[in-house]
Amino acid sequence: xxxxTFMQIGAAGGAAAAIGMKxxxxxxxxxxxxxxxxxxxxxxxxxxxxxxxxxxxxxxxSRPSPEIRVTEGEEISITVTNxxxxxxxxxxxxxxxxxxxxxxxxxxxxxxxxxPWAGSFLYVDPYKEPLNxxxxxxxxxxxxxxxxxxxxxxxTPFSGPKQTPQVQALFDALGGGDPRFPGDQWRRNDxxxxxxxxxxxxxxALNARVAAGEMVDPAKVKxxxxxxxxxxxxxxxxxxxxxxxxxxxxxDDDWDDDDNPAGRIMPSGKEGEPCLxxxxxxxxxxHSVHIHGNHCFILSGVDSEYRNECALYCFERDVWQLSPMQxxxxxxxxxxxxxxxxxxxxxxxxxxxxxxxxxxxxxLSQTAGGGNYPQGAVTHWEMTAPL
Length: 387
Ligand SMILES: [Cu+2]
Prior knowledge:
By secondary structure, the protein is mainly beta. Helices cover about 10% and strands about 35% of the residues. It folds into two domains: about 140 residues, Cupredoxins -  blue copper proteins (Immunoglobulin-like, Sandwich), CATH 2.60.40.420; about 190 residues, Cupredoxins -  blue copper proteins (Immunoglobulin-like), CATH 2.60.40.420. The site of copper (II) ion has 3 residues, from loops.
């Protein structure tokens, strides 16, 4: 294969910033209805400093795997230019009309479709499935509700006709005088209350074979897949959470806070500020997402055609399974942790912010490079102040 000068994508921003590029999973906001993506190879730095060959969708020329946000019912236009030397495609499982089966090297293709009912989707390269998806050609496609209100007027992330009574009851209980959920209701159009955990994995041996020009048989990828790196929104371990001083607008890094990739992952807020977390798995390994401090309410999943559906029972869980291509929205209630008695709340000896870990219970996923712990699919959330 002919090698070109690839883009360099540093895991924490350092190397990329040197060539004037941001590494954010940039957000394309829902006021847009037209998106121009480019498929391009890149060298990506992983958490332990290892560089691997990857493929990414870029928004414009510099943002890998952008989070695309649209509003239900809108006509969406997506143009994809393939700058790789191999054929690729574009698809959003669950939205059949958004498919571009194949785009030849150097070609540009285009698809127009109507955004369906609100929900969390993945966009992927369906060509040579699952090979190209695993090499990095995936991202989140979020459909926001136009209103999303329950009959009682509580805001939810889901379209009215698709809401189940159980989901409505939960959002109506938030901040509505129910002693279990003191504080505020959930608020839409506020990304502090709307987080994304897109899990994936990398097998560097597979990436190296593709980089060397080998025509890998996609049918054999799954059986031979040995994941050694585990990412959330492309980041691992330390890089998935905001660290004091590292990401404020007054420091000398290249981020403004809105554009901070760790900020899209890490929930941060006060007691009584419930937060939606859109969890999805673009990889080939199973994940078992486990959170400390609060239990999460399961809000949605996907049906057999990968369409989004609201939960019939909003179980309170501290662990939920995320199998490959699964998408599950959960609500982190930001309430007093259930094991702290009311008489001891707010705590006097332990200062705010209270920080709680999220780690995957699929133990392999906590490491990087086959051994470095905890540098995998692990992050934390924080409660900054009591009610
Ligand atoms: Cu734990």
